[in-house]
């Protein structure tokens, strides 16, 4: 039986991935700050789901994930999914706490956890799937900090492959566009109406779409590395450059 470690399993992509992998016969370790949600997921999924209440900003706790007892310690796949965005306000108008939380979670936590798990992933010829975003490639107004963190994740994923040459460890950067989860509710500081409005009438991707993609990548032959996957709902595309003619 294989084991996946999913960061951010309390909502969205991570929660859907936990269901997909446990139902598919894997063991799943799920982390997040909301312990009651992890407990509910364990009640639903049973003994093959291990809930661990961990904040991505707690480096000691992240490093502890590399020292779990068997069978949980035999991690085959690290799904670096936990992440969030600050509001799309201009940077000077955005609370520093929000900015710092996003950078610490999306970048520092992800790197700390990956670094801690790499020795055992190398030993097991394991796999890493990192959540980047289309925001890593295509700029939009109010996206600077979030997009910057996701560009980091994309480049970190590609460069890590160079370090891991010859180890058999696979690394993938997933770069989704709009998917309806709690992402926009969190980004707007809890504004469910704003979130509903953003996704209204545009048939966004779902958390299950992403879980299906993770499952496909996890079950490919070990000779194959998917470097990066960029995906969007059919209804989302690009708006072109903005030109300011007033100087
Ligand atoms: P959700 O808001 O639905 O879920 C985010 C998850 O991340 C939650 O489980 C949350 O857990 C966890 N998380 C956030 N901050 C922390 C933290 N400091 N410590 C521990 N866990 C944390 O969002 P999505 O499922 O949509 O997002 C998952 C990933 O996909 C993110 O990295 C996001 O940037 C990325 N993404 C999302 C897109 C979208 O349109 N939805 C598109 C492209 C990329 P808790 O709050 O309980 O700690
Ligand atoms: C989130 C996708 O398009 O809202 O990463 O920036 S988008």
Summarize the structure.
The protein has helices at 12-23, 35-45, 59-64, 96-123, 144-163, 183-187, 192-199, 207-218, and strands spanning 3-6, 27-32, 49-53, 77-80, 127-131, 170-176, 228-231. The protein is of the alpha/beta class and 247 residues long.
Compute the CA-based radius of gyration.
Answer: 18 Å
Number-wise, the strands total 7
Low-pLDDT ranges: none
Counting DSSP H or I runs of 4 or more residues, the number of helices is 8
The unique ligands bound to this protein are: NADPH dihydro-nicotinamide-adenine-dinucleotide phosphate, 2-hydroxyethylsulfonic acid
Averaging pLDDT over every residue, what do you get?
98
Q: What name does CATH use for the topology?
A: Rossmann fold
> Class by helix and strand content?
alpha/beta
The fourth-level CATH homologous superfamily is NAD(P)-binding Rossmann-like Domain
CATH class (first level) name: Alpha Beta
Number of domains: 1
For the sheet with most strands, the description reads:
7 strands, parallel
The CATH level-2 architecture is identified as: 3-Layer(aba) Sandwich
